[in-house]
Amino acid sequence: MIAAQDLHTEFQFAQEAESQLSSDTDLEDPDGKNAKTGKGMAAKKGKKAPGDKAKGGGAGRAPGLGRVNGHYQENGMETLFEVVKMGKSATQSVVDDWIEAYKHDRDHALLDLINFFIQCSGCKGAVSGEMFRHMQNSEIIRKMTEEFDEDGGDYPFTMAGPQWKKFRINFCDFIAVLVRQCQYSIIYDEYMMDTVISLLTGLSDSQVRAFRHTSTLAAMKLMTALVNVALNLSINMDNTQRQYEAERNKVLAKRANDRLENLLQKRKELQENQDEIENMMNAIFKGVFVHRYRDAIAEIRAICIEEIGMWMKLYSDAFLNDSYLKYVGWTMHDKQGEVRLKCLGALQGLFHSRELGARLELFTSRFKDRIVSMTLDKEYDVAVQAIKLLTLVLQSSDEILTAEDCESVYHLVYSAHRPIAVSAGEFLFKKLFSHRGPEEEGLPRRGRQSLNGSLIKTTVFFYLESELHEHGAYLVDSLWDCGSELLKDWESMISLLLDEPVSGEEALTDRQETALVEIMLCAIRQACECHPPVGRGTGKRVLSAKEKKTQLDDRTRITEMFAVALPLLLAKYCVDIDKVTNLLQIPKYFDLDIYTTGRLEKHLDALLRQIWEVQDKHTDTEVLEASSTTYHSLCNEEFTIFNRVDIARSQLLDELVDKFNTLLEDFLQEGEEPDEDDAYQVLSTLKKISAFHNAHDLSKWDLFTSNYKLLNTGLQNGDMPEQIVIHAMQCTHYIILWHLAKVSDGSSLKGDMVTLRKQMRAFCLMCQRYLNSINNAVKEQAFTILCDLLLIFSHQMMSSGREQLEPLVYTPDSSLQAELLNFILDQVFIDQDEDNNSTDGQQDDEASKIEALHKRRNLLAAYCKLIIYNVVEINTGADIFKQYMRYYNDYGDIIKETLSKTRQIDKVQCAKTLVLSLQMLFNDMLSELGFNVDRSTSAFCGIKELSRRFSLTFGLDQMKTREAIAMLHKDGIEFAFKEPSPQGQGSPPLNLAFLDILSEFSSKLIHQDKRTVHKYLERFMTVQMALQRDDCWLPLISYRNSLQVGGDDDTMSVISGISSRGSTRSKKSKSATASKRKLPEEENSCSSSDAVWMNREQNMQTPVMMHSPHLTSTVLRDPKKMRQEDSCTAAFTMPTEQLPHQPVPLQQQPHHHHQTAIDYNTQVTWMLTQRQQVEARQQQERVSMHYAKMRNHMQQEIRRGSGLMEDDEEPIVEDVMMSSEDRLEDINEDMNFETMDIDLPASKNRRERSELKPDYFDPSSIMDDSVLNVSMF
């Protein structure tokens, strides 16, 4: 802090001859507890306030400006805040104007500066001259806090838009220029700086975020400006000292004593100024920085760290030490990425200088581990800057980072986030490739013996040691920005592959050559496509003119170089599958015109011969597909080489087809059993034809007949090798797709569509028959092809104006849908250990397990696409959805996405499918565990958890899913009462426990629909059911309770209220008397609405709850004091003689006004019995009632004491949150958090209830035709 004897807060007016000084207690005591009244003020009696002066001293102020109580008058004049905000005037001129005003009347100008900081905080108030003279800073800040606008949380430094962004820049510039212009005189007058620092220190300790943020930014920028001043003073002192020493060292005759005195005096003045500046910086640092670098607001912390980095960089002699570096080190552990980013930026500024970096050895050794760990920061920007910082550390010294530290950065070159990978690539390049020994200086520039040749070998070694051999494209992309020159040295790469090693040189191993070929291919692709590999970019970016020129030049050089070298490379590595597969992909990046312009036709012929030899020697699918792709790339009609390549391709295909037909004829001869050699020849030829048919149209060879004949023979005999069947299916699939392409383009003949339709349907039937094969691989191929064909030939193919393809639409029948579903259930939803066939007996091999899982995921995704595109019925998804919990880790994302897409298609049908899946699981549980359902078993809890997950997927917008949720409850209720109890009358229905599962969806019902669902539930109940309290009836009780949450339902059943509210909190319920106040119209409406959801068979009716006749009594209780239990007879009647689960014939169903007569005495007896039971229960609750009365009395007394009315008492609302904290983890599962409607209790939501929007729900969607004209609610 500023010492009292060194720093004074002086308020001196221009007219006074003497000044009165006092210590700046605002700095030592921000709250002003120890301050004296009028501290630091020296105003005389009768002295005018600055605002009362006729002349204005503010910057940018015209003569007509006036102020009243410190507020500027808007008569065409502008405040300092407005001038800086508009930015129309140069900052230099604004500061010069303020300095002139300060020289003329420093109190007036300083008041303008104080109000500038206040207004920059967004405060509407202003400091008046009277406040300035007679109030302490803490009192001024408290006054400004009272005038702060609390309605809006925004202030200039948090507002968005270019204007406010520019204002922040202007604000910082203004402070910097102000200090720079005042550095020779004004800042040493012990007035201006003391006042400003005292004010900013007080504001930075304010509870108001705007004050704290603005003052911290101002104080930090002020500190930076003072650091610059101190740096200049230090330089001047050094110069003066040097001049003094030089003058004093002269001989006595030449020494100028007066000059020595002047230099000594100048050094003394500079030292005094330096001391003043250091006191100011000390005050800001200890008064603002030390408190605000750990502020609750991340942006404030970031400001402090950013500025301390500037201080250490600008004035390293004073600030680059452990006393200040520790703050940066500590803050690297900040929770906010923004702050951590500023720490790394501050350190980068220091490590850029080798001189400064050498002084950070102690800091680096202490915080190096933290910096290395930040390369894995969850914030990508922080991780990128951490890697860049380590790169700078590596440049400053090779000994700081250990091998483990470097390895933790190396693997990041394979990161999916490209900025991280590029930064790691730069680190790798600096570490491995930037150091050149003296023996490497005289090496040639290109070729095997060149420096690049050695570096390419190093790259290959690193690639192999990383053990991520399938990610060569990511390694090349990471090194591309910093090492593209190395990666484009294809001449050296070719030399390493083709040239023989010289004596003493170690040749590359086969594994290293394979890695080099892959890296070479990835570098070619990167140069020609100019975009990162899959997963590292959002899309192709637009190339600049320079980048396009570089791309064309690289492509030309690649073609000229590899047109000659590629045939040689293929000849050398002809039998190597991996190398040949990569080499055959190079021609697709060629500029084919160069074959003609460069007279390279003989090299083209050599290439075609090598491709022919490759396909002749290989039967591997990858090599054959690469050969097919190469022919497709070279057969481009736009280039003159097309005829030459087309002839070679046609000759190759003619030879393959003739060979296949000949072999097939011999293979299928009757009476002869084919040997293994014949089967191998047929298979190899068929694989080649299938590979070429993938990229080339082979329709003119009519391969459908021979392939269909082959498949049909395999079905009849059953001994066809599985690979032949698989490739025959694949080839036939390509035949149909090429035929469809010709028909869609309109280039086919008239009868081609009929032929295609016949072939497609025959092939689908063939694949359907192969679904029953004993071989899993064949079944999987048949299933995959069927799913593709059903999707391609679905009704979707007629879109985009292709109605002429309607005859080709193929809809699967029910048998095919069932077989597809059975295949999924049998082949996909299996445990990992059961998958014996697909892993070839290698269950212990982790890679094979992952591959098998990937294959099953593809099968499931193929079937789910049929559901999403309405190819199969949506309800077939029930068998998929019910597996969501059990196979969540394997297929959870696929099932979840299918559920989401299905809901977009049809919300109601999707809801029906969900409840159907739950019903399936419930039936499976009954078949396993028996009829007595134990709701504590893991099976039941699993179904309930699945229903909860399904409920979460409906989101929070209840209006969007209203109809779907209502239909879900309807189907669930019908299922629960569908089967009578196997134990006879008096026992709960067989599926009653399903209501407990269904209750998970009750929270998704709006209150109006809860009443409707509750009435629909009562249609399936009898009076005995409503009165049951045994454990076996708990699902019904809990489900009814879930439909009655809210307490404001006038038509709610009272008996259900007993089961859901057994405490004394229900005393104030209004539902007890509401039924007695019903008008006849309301009764009629309610009784008629009981027909809701009666979409059932005419010969099957559910039992209907009988309405009790109105009873007349001479004594009625006060409705306000009546308990819910006392009115239990108001809703339900005596049970009829009919059995509980026996359906009531349609003609016997009574209406409200034609009810069956009931003996009055019997009814009264029953009522008394029920009342006795209620009173017995009440006897057990008297203790809790007494406690509740005392608590209620205390609450009333408290409210009366605080002036609350009785009607405004806060109701006791039961907690309806989820009972388990674990469920909160899934609360955001497929939810839409944009809206959240909270239905408050009646006493809190009285006004809102009267302003509810009208209900636009259409009851007809879930009601019978007979009740469409009845009010639903």
UniProtKB/TrEMBL annotation:
One term under GO cellular component: chromatin
Protein name: Cohesin subunit SA
Subcellular location: Nucleus; Chromosome; Chromosome, Centromere
Stretches assigned to the SCD domain: 289-374
An individual GO BP term: cell division
Coiled-coil ranges from the UniProt annotation: 230-283
Cross-referenced InterPro entries: ARM-type_fold, Cohesin_Scc3/SA, HEAT_SCC3-SA, SCD, STAG
Source organism (scientific name): Cyclopterus lumpus (Lumpsucker)
Keywords: Cell cycle, Cell division, Chromosome, Chromosome partition, Coiled coil, Nucleus
Domain of life from the UniProt record: Eukaryota
Family: Belongs to the SCC3 family.
Oligomeric and partner information: Part of the cohesin complex which is composed of a heterodimer between a SMC1 protein (SMC1A or SMC1B) and SMC3, which are attached via their hinge domain, and RAD21 which link them at their heads, and one STAG protein.
Region (Disordered): 1-69, 1050-1089, 1240-1260
Lineage start: Eukaryota, Metazoa, Chordata, Craniata, Vertebrata
Molecular functions (GO terms): chromatin binding
Role of this protein: Component of cohesin complex, a complex required for the cohesion of sister chromatids after DNA replication. The cohesin complex apparently forms a large proteinaceous ring within which sister chromatids can be trapped. At anaphase, the complex is cleaved and dissociates from chromatin, allowing sister chromatids to segregate.
Transmembrane segments: none
SUPFAM superfamilies on file: ARM repeat
Gene transcribed to yield this protein: stag2a
